[in-house]
Amino acid sequence: MSGIVIQAIQFFASLSLLVFIHEFGHYITARMFGVRVEKFYLFFNPWFSLYKRKIGDTEYGIGWLPMGGYVSLAGMIAESMHTE
After folding, report:
1. Which band of pLDDT confidence, cut at 50, 70 and 90, is reported for residue 77?
2. What is the pTM of this model?
3. What's the CA gap between 81 and 18, in Å, rounded?
4. Residues with catalytic annotation?
């Protein structure tokens, strides 16, 4: 493999690790304070997910759009659905 391909793979892997650690911080903090976590996703999933599995009340998954990740907490209201 060429050096550019290896560097691209390393960049993608390190970015994925950073996103996972960041979102895990949200997840573990919510769990410590007794907040139910509905979803924990690495990457975004606008129309479909590459992988998802529900364990207990939480759905874990990997989306297909590698631009971040998210943790959905119980009672959290999306700002895009805010009517005011």
Report:
1. confident
2. 0.79
3. 28
4. 23
